[in-house]
């Protein structure tokens, strides 16, 4: 194959069509070629700007604070659950994929009572059932929901879940990891106590920092809830808000890159601008793949423009590993499926990827299918 047909990022790397870590801009990576001490005034100022800027993304400047947590996104989710849910609390966990299940596992390990409302991976939670469960069990203090369940790419109805949870006098905790910065979540209209996200998804930073946007009044009530030292968001907030410093070594380079990524996010128009580019990417991907004969797991109405799950073709000439390797050879990294309901694979629409990249990708998929002798369109 001609080398001209191999896709590369600005820094010469394969394009990651994955849900994060994802392809970041060259400028985000470039700001990391320095050293800072963790008590260095320049770093402390950058960190402060990052933390103070994040609540704007949910229109929560007045009522929310950012509490960062070193580590991947799951560290932030575990910190949120084990700080906000008191030891005597009980959580209704809404599950329709791996990240809902992970939250349940975190609660089990931490010894927090919980019950699960589970729906299939292509199905949103049932509001009538949530109302029944909450009404039947006054011990339930919190509801946990995943905004975009990255397992399938489904957009869960967090607005409706929030309204119901508030009406029944319970508190909502949200894992918005893969949606944060791309799907609107407006704290002025949607009632929740905390939302967890990370540096390496739709804000397009590098991995290493999770964070929780916490309602100040709710965070103030969490003293002593934590069952680990490291993941105690109340303690973390106390330290950072009084000294400007982390309790334990911060991922400095990650935070500096995140600061640059946030500048680029706002320059693109914030949630509206970024969400629109991703929606465009998803549109080109879905239309192009459908034209080749692929089928999506989700109907349009449930599909978030983050990551798209495609059914594995039935044509015996289609071998996923060959497909994956051939795409990788041409500069595109895709994602295996994670579903239990269907044999599938996933393609991400997020990161430093544009319409031209998605168009070129669909063209390469057509070539690879031809090389493999797969005739989806006629065989379908
Ligand atoms: C990525 C992601 C997480 C966190 O995963 P890590 O591997 O710990 O970064 C949590 N929830 C959802 C919905 C995600 O997409």
Automatic annotation (TrEMBL):
Keywords noted in UniProt: Aminotransferase, Pyridoxal phosphate, Pyruvate, Transferase
Enzymatic reactions: (2-aminoethyl)phosphonate + pyruvate = phosphonoacetaldehyde + L-alanine
Pfam families: Aminotran_5
Cofactor: pyridoxal 5'-phosphate
EC number: 2.6.1.37
Domain Aminotransferase class V, first and last residues per copy: 111-312
Binding residue positions for substrate: 346
InterPro entries for the chain: Aminotrans_V_dom, NH2EtPonate_pyrv_transaminase, PyrdxlP-dep_Trfase, PyrdxlP-dep_Trfase_major, PyrdxlP-dep_Trfase_small, SP_NH2Trfase/AEP_transaminase
PANTHER family xref list: 2-AMINOETHYLPHOSPHONATE--PYRUVATE TRANSAMINASE
UniProt record similarity statement: Belongs to the class-V pyridoxal-phosphate-dependent aminotransferase family. PhnW subfamily.
Complex and partners: Homodimer.
Name of this chain's protein: 2-aminoethylphosphonate--pyruvate transaminase
Organism annotation: Methylopila turkensis
Gene transcribed to yield this protein: phnW
């Amino acid at each position: 194959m001609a080398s001209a047909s191999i896709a590369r990022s600005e820094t010469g790397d394969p394009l990651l069509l994955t849900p994060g870590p994802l392809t970041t801009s060259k400028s985000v990576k470039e700001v990391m070629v320095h050293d800072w001490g963790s008590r260095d005034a320049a770093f402390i100022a950058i960190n402060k700007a990052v933390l103070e800027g994040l609540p704007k993304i949910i229109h929560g400047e007045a009522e929310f604070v950012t509490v960062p947590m070193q580590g991947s996104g799951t560290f932030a989710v575990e910190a949120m659950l084990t700080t906000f849910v008191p030891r005597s609390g009980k959580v209704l966990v809404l599950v329709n994929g791996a990240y809902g299940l992970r939250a349940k596992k975190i609660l089990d390990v931490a010894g927090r009572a919980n019950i699960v409302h589970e729906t299939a991976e292509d199905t949103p939670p049932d509001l009538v059932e949530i109302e029944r469960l909450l009404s039947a069990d006054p011990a339930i203090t919190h509801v946990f929901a995943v905004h975009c369940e990255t397992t399938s790419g489904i957009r869960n109805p967090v607005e409706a879940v929030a309204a119901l949870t508030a009406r029944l006098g319970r508190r909502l905790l949200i894992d918005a990891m893969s949606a944060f910065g791309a799907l609107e979540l407006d704290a002025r209209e949607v009632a929740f106590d905390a939302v967890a996200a990370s540096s390496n998804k739709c804000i397009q930073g590098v991995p290493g920092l999770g964070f929780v946007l916490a309602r100040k009044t709710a965070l103030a009530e969490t003293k002593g809830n934590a069952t680990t030292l490291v993941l105690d968001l109340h303690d973390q907030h106390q330290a950072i808000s009084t000294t400007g410093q982390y309790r334990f070594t911060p991922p400095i380079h990650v935070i500096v890159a995140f600061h640059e990524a946030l500048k680029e996010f706002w320059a693109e128009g914030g949630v509206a601008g970024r969400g629109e580019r991703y929606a465009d990417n998803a549109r080109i991907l879905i239309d192009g793949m459908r034209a080749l004969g692929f089928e999506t797991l989700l109907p349009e109405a449930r599909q978030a423009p983050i990551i798209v799950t495609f059914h594995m073709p039935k044509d015996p000439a289609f071998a996923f590993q060959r497909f994956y390797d051939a795409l990788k050879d041409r500069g595109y990294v895709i994602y295996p499926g994670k579903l239990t309901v269907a044999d599938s694979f996933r393609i991400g629409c997020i990161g430093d990827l544009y319409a031209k990249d998605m168009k070129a990708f669909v063209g390469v998929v057509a070539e690879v299918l031809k090389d493999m002798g797969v005739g989806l369109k006629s065989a379908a």
